[in-house]
């Protein structure tokens, strides 16, 4: 699925942007409030590196996780945008695409979540998320090429028999986790490939469990272990949304459509 098609899925995530916030856990970064149409624009190109984000957007979550994992909280400032009430200056002066995530760095504003994950990895200090092993690098690129299909299949499943239609996507994921045996992640050790997938697994695991009473980890032990290990990573935990709010968002957006399609 191309970027144009993916925008249809992305619109799902921007609804109710003011109602969703990451779960608060222990000591963590104090998150700035989302900026709205009445908020003044922060300085631009003043030497500060800024990540323009939304606390509910799965694409922005990828870059947020990467920032946290590399320990860049003090070097990359979060600027949260209210996607339902966006400041006009964001499109006019910061990022003409008017989407998140976007990164302001060295006099430029860059976009596209996976491009930004790689950019942060290449241009900032901290543990690398890109494997150096050629076999893992090659397999990682295959999985990255598949992530749009994975995402599309999950969103499409909500229009019909969600459990049945989502199963092939999760079966593919379970099989992918068996490629390397030196760790529980997609390339064995934690990498940018895991970061690419986790925001969508997080959301659909929650919706399928609550709304459809289906556990996606049933008979998928590798997926269960992957999720368990992910939930131990502080860089990820700081970005998670409240499961109940994910469920409420689904019900407001998709539940009527699901019922009508199954009458």
UniProtKB/TrEMBL annotation:
Enzyme class, UniProt record, top EC level: transferase
Per UniProt, residues of the GST N-terminal domain are 47-128
Matches recorded under Pfam families: GST_C_2 (PF13410), GST_N_3 (PF13417)
Q: Name one GO biological process term.
A: response to toxic substance
E.C. number(s) listed in UniProt: 2.5.1.18
Q: Among its keywords, does the record have Lipid biosynthesis? A: no
Decide whether keyword Protein transport is in the record. no
Q: Which GO terms describe its molecular function?
A: glutathione transferase activity
Which top-level group of life is the source organism from?
Eukaryota
Q: Which reaction does it catalyse?
A: RX + glutathione = an S-substituted glutathione + a halide anion + H(+)
Q: Which UniProt keywords apply?
A: Detoxification
Q: Which family does it belong to?
A: Belongs to the GST superfamily. Lambda family.
Q: What is this protein called?
A: glutathione transferase
Its ancestry begins with:
Eukaryota, Viridiplantae, Streptophyta, Embryophyta, Tracheophyta
């Amino acid at each position: 699925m191309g970027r144009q098609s993916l925008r249809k899925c992305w619109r799902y995530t921007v609804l109710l942007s003011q109602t969703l916030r990451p779960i608060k856990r222990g000591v963590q970064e104090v998150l700035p409030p989302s900026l709205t149409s009445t908020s003044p624009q922060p300085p631009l190109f003043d030497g500060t590196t800024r990540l323009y984000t939304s606390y509910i957007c799965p694409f922005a979550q990828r870059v947020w996780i990467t920032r946290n994992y590399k320990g860049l909280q003090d070097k990359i400032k979060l600027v949260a945008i209210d996607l339902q009430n966006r400041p006009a200056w964001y499109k006019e002066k910061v990022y003409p695409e008017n989407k998140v995530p976007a990164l302001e760095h060295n006099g430029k504003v860059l976009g596209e979540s996976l491009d930004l994950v790689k950019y942060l990895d290449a241009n900032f200090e901290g543990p690398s998320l890109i494997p150096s092993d050629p076999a893992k690098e090659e397999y990682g690129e295959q999985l990255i090429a598949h992530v749009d299909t994975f995402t599309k299949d999950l969103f499409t499943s909500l229009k019909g028999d969600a459990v049945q239609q989502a199963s092939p996507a999760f079966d593919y994921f379970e099989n992918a986790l068996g490629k390397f045996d030196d760790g529980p992640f997609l390339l064995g050790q934690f990498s940018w490939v895991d970061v690419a997938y986790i925001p969508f697994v997080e959301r659909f695991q929650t919706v399928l469990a609550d709304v459809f009473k289906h556990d996606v980890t049933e008979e998928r032990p590798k997926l269960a272990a992957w999720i368990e290990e992910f939930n131990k990573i502080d860089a990820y935990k700081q970005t998670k949304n409240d499961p109940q709010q994910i469920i409420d968002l689904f019900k407001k957006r998709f539940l009527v459509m699901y019922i009508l399609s199954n009458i």
